[in-house]
């Protein structure tokens, strides 16, 4: 690696550390909740995102799905779901494929909160990136996607050895 490439790699690592800290502090979510004055907690953002993502893929979400998605044990996921149900952002319903099974769905309020948060994030990104030349933005998006796949590729390559 050339000295210039090595410095670029060091710079990328520094930026990634800043991004990790920001994500760990949940800064974007906290700003959205504050600015939108939503009656939910930062912890509720995970269940909103999980259920919204599940419904986008036509899947049925269960407490087990929430546990897996949030990387928590099932009893913790059950408490998270119960709290979200109490807040009126999630409801339990019978599965369409097996009425003995209980699935989770966003309520109208949950969908409205998720949509408001998504729009808030888009506005923040648009404000931050709106002045970039289109070619730069398209190139950055392509390269960022390529970069984000590096860990999966590293795992695959390590397994092939």
Description:
This protein has 161 residues and is mainly alpha-helical. The chain has one domain (3-130): Winged helix-like DNA-binding domain superfamily/Winged helix DNA-binding domain (Arc Repressor Mutant, subunit A, Orthogonal Bundle). Helix content is 72%, strand content 6%. It contains eight helices and two strands, in the order H-H-H-H-H-E-E-H-H-H. Helix 3 (44-56) packs across helix 6 and helix 4 crosses helix 5. The longest helix has 23 residues, at 3-25. The chain is globular and about 60 Å long. The model has no long low-confidence stretch (mean pLDDT 91). This is Winged helix-turn-helix transcriptional regulator. Residues 9-149 form the HTH marR-type domain. It holds the Pfam family MarR_2.
Q: How would the blueprint of this fold be written?
A:
Elements: H1 3-25, H2 27-36, H3 44-56, H4 63-70, H5 74-87, E1 90-94, E2 102-106, H6 108-129, H7 134-148, H8 150-160
Antiparallel strand pairs: 1-2
Summarize this, please?
The chain is mainly alpha-helical and 161 residues long. It has a single domain, classed as Arc Repressor Mutant, subunit A. The protein has helices at 3-25, 27-36, 44-56, 63-70, 74-87, 108-129, 134-148, 150-160, and strands at 90-94, 102-106.
């Amino acid at each position: 690696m050339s000295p210039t490439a090595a410095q670029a790699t060091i710079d990328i690592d520094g930026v990634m550390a800043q991004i990790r800290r920001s994500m760990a502090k949940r800064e974007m979510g906290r700003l959205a909740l504050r600015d939108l004055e939503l009656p939910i907690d930062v912890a509720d953002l995970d269940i909103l995102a999980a259920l919204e993502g599940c419904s986008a893929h036509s899947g049925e979400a269960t407490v087990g799905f929430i546990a897996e998605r949030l990387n928590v044990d099932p009893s913790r996921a059950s408490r998270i779901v119960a709290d979200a149900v109490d807040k009126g952002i999630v409801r339990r319903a019978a599965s369409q494929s097996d009425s003995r099974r209980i699935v989770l769905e966003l309520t109208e309020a949950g969908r409205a909160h998720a949509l408001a948060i998504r729009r808030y994030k888009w506005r923040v990104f648009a404000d931050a990136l709106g002045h970039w030349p289109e070619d730069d933005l398209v190139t950055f998006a392509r390269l960022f996607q390529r970069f984000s796949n590096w860990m999966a590729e590293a795992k695959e390559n390590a397994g092939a050895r």
